[in-house]
Amino acid sequence: MAEKNISLANRAYTIIKENIMNLTYPPGMTLTEAKLTKELGMSRSPVRSAIQMLQNEGLIVSDYYKSMMVKEITDEDITEIYQIRELFEGAAFELIFTSGRYEEYSYRIEEKVVRMCATAGDLYNWELADAAMHREIISIFENERINRIYENNLTELVRIGQYSIKNGMAIPKTNDNLKKMIQYMRKGNYEKAFAILKADHFGTGKSAALNGPRNI
Q1: Which residues does the UniProt record annotate as the domain HTH gntR-type (predicted)?
Q2: What class does CATH assign to 2-70?
Q3: In the chain, alpha helices (H)
Q4: For a disulfide at 112, which of 34, 52, 133, 204, Cβ 3.0-4.6 Å?
Q5: pLDDT digits (tens, 9 = 90+) for 134-162
Q6: Helix (H, G, I), strand (E, B), or coil: what is residue 57?
Q7: What homologous superfamily is domain 75-211 in, according to CATH?
Q8: Would you list the domain boundaries of the chain?
Q9: Is 30 left (phi over 0), alpha (psi -120 to 50) or beta?
């Protein structure tokens, strides 16, 4: 019986977390045990365990009156996430060229961009593919600590990325620009390749997320 409850709790955790990541449960949305048990078709015990796990991760928060809601995304969150991304990926992209591995990485990144193009009609899965593309860039470091930073912030990266798209960052244009970036990488042209990454993923993405509405 205990194993069944653990299995149900893990299933509830997975479903609720995905609903938070794909904005089915948007930032600031009020959640209750009753609502979640009804939607998941489960008893309160596994749902309560799932809620506790998500509270420990900071994705569900409680206020003074014990009401629960999905963690808001603030301007500070967006600024900090993009600062992390720019610092790590900027240095990683430069290392890809200075180490002479730009052709190799052009093909590795292209694999992720192909996935992005295949999921262009599905915002959530496109964002997951986009996150995989960014993780491919930082893989040049071969640094598990940096990898964990990205994994620990994956939910925020994906949620914020969806704001960027819904508020002005166009998927087809982004995909086309990444294809151009890959071609510049093949030619060993760091300046033009990095200019695309910087403009699309450090500039437009951040501005759209900061300036657009959050109640989506």
Answers
A1: 6-73
A2: mainly alpha
A3: 2-21, 33-40, 44-56, 75-98, 102-118, 123-138, 144-152, 154-166, 171-186, 190-197, 205-211
A4: 133
A5: 999 999 999 999 999 999 999 999 999 88
A6: coil
A7: GntR ligand-binding domain-like (1.20.120.530)
A8: 2-70, 75-211
A9: beta
